[in-house]
Amino acid sequence: MRSVAPINPQKKEGDPNCVKESDYYEGERLIHLLGLIQRGIETSKLLNVNSLPEKIWLKQQIAIGINEVTRVLERMKANTRDQQQQNPRQPPVQLQVVIVVADCKPRMLTKHIPNLAASRNVPVLYIRDNRRASLRLGELVKLKTALAIGVKARGNDLNQLLQQEIVPRDS
Question: Is the pLDDT of residue 12 over 50?
Answer without folding.
Answer: no
